[in-house]
DNA sequence: TTGGTAATTTATAACCATTCTAAAGTAGAG
DNA sequence: CTCTACTTTAGAATGGTTATAAATTACCAA
């Protein structure tokens, strides 16, 4: 089963038809050796460079959101005017250089969070994210 | 030294003249028994209710940013369309209920973060923030 | 006190990432 | 191949935030 089939698989799982545009997005997202962080504008540049075709912003927004909702991408909880996404979907944390708007992964095993108090009013803990700001 | 003098002090320290509008903002921010989290729109409602006067958005944005820059308020690193501020300027962490857009403090002593890897490329760690999402 | 001047307030416009819209194009079942 | 539902796209709308510039106010010096 080659990469292409995986992309088709992913798109179908996200409830999306495997169109040319969506496959181009998947290639740029998932055919890389390393995971990476991106904004929509940055992804647009990457996909258009990789595929040598224009792609509309609307398609990028729609596809990225669908892939995120299906769990193939993560949205990163960072304040800022632009939203960051992550092709690393494993549980992990981040260094964040605000000046550069640049993220670096911290593997889950390389950080320890303990003594968590329990959530208020019978709420349940959904995730624990550590953000280490650096300068 | 009463509260008013403290407000004037804070404003002067932030490089701001103590005007009626800015003092009204300070009263609504710092005369409460408990610290709290707010968005600009929410603060506008609070200040206008407390002071029974209209206040422009621009003045709120400017004053809140100046107070933040001087360290009298904290901006909270949470993704979302609106920016959250915090009158609790001590080092602490947060529970966050995304559905309700509601924050609850976690005191620093009530959470333990260990084994932090060192920052990349000779960068320095500026802060370590834990965000616990709840549902 | 009184001007004079710089700071401030305000309404409104501009900005810009994101979402919405609706028309034109396309995929794929049958 | 045809039909229909889905998709793509350009452009408009949205909404929080920031910029602008005219009217107002604070406050120092005379
Ligand atoms: Mn989103
Ligand atoms: Mn800000
Ligand atoms: Zn990451
Ligand atoms: Zn807080």
CATH class category of the largest domain in chain A: Mainly Alpha
Q: CATH homologous superfamily of the largest domain in chain A, by name?
A: Winged helix-like DNA-binding domain superfamily/Winged helix DNA-binding domain
Number of helices of chain A: 4
Query: What overall form of chain A do the CA principal axes indicate?
Result: globular
- Compute the number of structural domains of chain A: 2
Could you name the key traits of this structure?
homodimer, 135 residues, Arc Repressor Mutant, subunit A, 2 domains, three-stranded antiparallel sheet, 4 helices, 35% helix, binds manganese (II) ion, binds zinc ion, DNA-binding
Description:
The structure is a homodimer of 135-residue chains. The first copy, chain A, is of the alpha+beta class and 135 residues long. Chain A folds into 2 domains: 1-89, Arc Repressor Mutant, subunit A, CATH 1.10.10.10; 90-135, no CATH class. Chain A has 4 helices and 7 strands, in the order ααβααββββββ. The first copy, chain A, has helices spanning 3-13, 20-30, 40-51, 57-69, and strands spanning 37-38, 74-76, 84-86, 92-97, 102-107, 112-114, 125-134. In chain A, the strands form 2 sheets. The first copy, chain A, has a 3-stranded antiparallel beta sheet. A 3-stranded mixed beta sheet of chain A has the order 5-4-7, with no helix packed on it. The longest helix of chain A has 13 residues, at 57-69. The A-B interface holds A 75-80, 83, 95, 97, 104, 106, 110-117, 119-120, 123-135 and B 75-80, 83, 95, 97, 104, 106, 110-117, 119-120, 123-135. β6 of chain A pairs antiparallel with β6 of chain B, so a sheet runs across the interface. Residues 37, 86, 88, 92, 94, 103, 105 of chain B line the site of one zinc ion. Chain B binds a DNA duplex (30 and 30 nucleotides) through α2 and α4.
């Amino acid at each position: 089963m080659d990469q292409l089939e995986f992309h088709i698989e992913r798109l179908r799982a996200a409830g999306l038809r495997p169109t040319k545009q969506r496959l181009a997005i998947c290639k740029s997202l998932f055919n890389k050796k390393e995971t990476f962080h991106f904004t929509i504008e940055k992804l647009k540049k990457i996909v258009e460079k990789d595929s040598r075709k224009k792609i509309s912003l609307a398609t990028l927004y729609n596809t990225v959101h669908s892939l995120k909702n299906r769990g193939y991408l993560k949205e990163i909880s960072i304040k800022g005017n632009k939203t960051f996404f992550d092709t690393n979907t494993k549980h992990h944390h981040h260094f964040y250089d605000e000046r550069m708007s640049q993220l670096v992964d911290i593997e889950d095993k390389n950080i320890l969070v303990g003594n968590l108090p329990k959530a208020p009013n019978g709420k349940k803990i959904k995730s624990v994210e550590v953000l280490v700001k650096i300068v």
